[in-house]
Amino acid sequence: MIRVSNVSKTFTLSRKQQKEMGADFQGKTVHAVDDISFHCQPGRIFTLLGPNGAGKTTTLRMIATILKPSSGEILVSGYNTVSSGAEVRRRLGFLTGGTGLYDRLTPNELIDYFGKLNSMDARELAKRKDELFTLLGIHEFANRRIGRFSTGMKQKVSIARTVIHDPEVVVFDEPTSGLDVIAAKSIIDLIRNSKLQGKTVIFSTHIMSEVNMLSDDLAIIHKGKMIYNNTFEQFKSGMQEATLEDEFIRIAAAHDTINV
Amino acid sequence: MRHTLTIFRKELKEILRDRRTLTVMLVIPLLIYPVLFAGISSFVQGQEEKADKEGLRVGLADTGEQEGFSVFIDGIPGIQQTLVSTDTAAIRQLIQGDSLDVVFYFPEGYTQALDSLQATGYRYYFTSTNNEFKTNQINTLSSSYQEHLTGLKLSELSVSPRILQPADAEAINLASQREQFGSVIGGIIPYFFIIFCLIGCMYPAMDLAAGEKERGTLETLLVAPATRMDIYLGKFLAVALSGFISAMAAIIGILIASRIISNGEGDMSGMMEMLNGLLEPLSVLSLLGILLPLNAFFAAITLMISIYARSFKEAQSMITPLMIVCIFPAIFGMLPGVELNMTTALVPILNVSLGAKEIIAGTIQPGPLALTYISLIAYAVVALMVSVRFFNDEKNIMKG
Fold this sequence. Notes:
The complex is a heterodimer. Chain A is α/β, with parallel strands linked by helices.
């Protein structure tokens, strides 16, 4: 379970960054995330939809304890991300589009490394690793260095790393970006399986077909603000446009008009 | 703490698998000096052997005045003499064509002038660029001929040669062999420790922070249950150890090189005495006491820069100037007359350079040594604290 309550995140900009923001920009801070609240439940997939720069990654990084909220509070499985970061991380898996693997290690070593960091005991780790390697077809290259792997192979190892400690909550930050259809399919399967196993799943995307395929709950985030948050069923039944894309653009435009 | 160890082990494994880092960290410091010195020493030895084998080929210009010199060198082994033409151009050709090593030219009237004590002289033609050993032999030959003449003149006058040197002087150096050796090589060892410790820290530090950021692996580590302190310490220890190994490799390299230079012969007792002195537990502890905080200082600083940098490349361009900044005090410590006192003990790196030199030579004073320890530990702790703060700063972690 994830509960995000009135969370904001402001970044202080360096002078150089202020210049890069253009002549219209005033002040020294940007609100990457502005007072958002939502709630993700076990056994459901929560989709965070928004264009690039909307604040999706910042939000997910705050849930994963990499960043601290400037205000508000996030609870993951009942633990506060700021005061009980290690407890949160113990229960959380985090996967991004970039695989982020150590090239000079083998899948075996890499998974052992993350298993140990998750304080798994040796027998439990070996068993879980064997299961995952079988499921993902990693065994045949388990003892070769990751550096020479194809993106698809890396993606499999990356998935194994994310779920080796059987996390209750899985966070996917644009997990299919940069992947081909086959590699993307394995991610989609992982998300679905996580849901079937009763895990809490949150994933961010800007790809409408994925939204359609996976969402149980949907939140739309735009310029740091949450402009829609309901079940996907509700969203579909309330659509005023023919396609998801058009509906998304309509909602975003409506929000811009209100704010101008 | 367990996580720190897990991270430390994994970082070490990665360092050992990186050929580039391994080369810079271990292979170069270990081999550069032995190879360099072996090269120089075999070249010098070759020159010496050539000089010995050929002997000295002496030409005597046929002026009719060469008789006395000819008789003088006749008794010296390893000298072959030939009569040559008096033409300067021909002489030049003989020397430059390497047919002869030296040609002595005694002008007309030389013998008579010598007998009547009138001003006279002789010339000898040689080339200094040929072989240094031969040049020395030639100069020695000429001066021993001069001494020979002086001796002859004095005995003609029935004067004792003691008139020229009434008293002999005997210089007795009270510095122990260890002190003498220590003041020479003792300045070099800490210098190499400083340089290679820094180099050994540099590459892993760049790889373990900026490199991880660039490759996107740092994020995966940050969402593991290890605390940031665990992660930082694991990396810090790996960087520090690699700096230490690199520095030790350089020192072992230098010791091997100095063996090569002395080539088994010559007086090794000073070196052995110094080494034995160094292997006393107290000396080892005193040296480690100043080298380890420096090691920690370097690891913290390089890691701090690397955490701050956006990419491996940026880290590289920021760490290179650090190298130059660190070399200066290290070299300054090798200069004669600069000593460890209550002021220099406060200057980082310089105090290591000076302190280590005096520990090796066995001349260290307790006051400045204690101050060196304290200041080095203080610098290391401050660098470590700032470095940890950098690592805890979201801005640095999310860069790139």
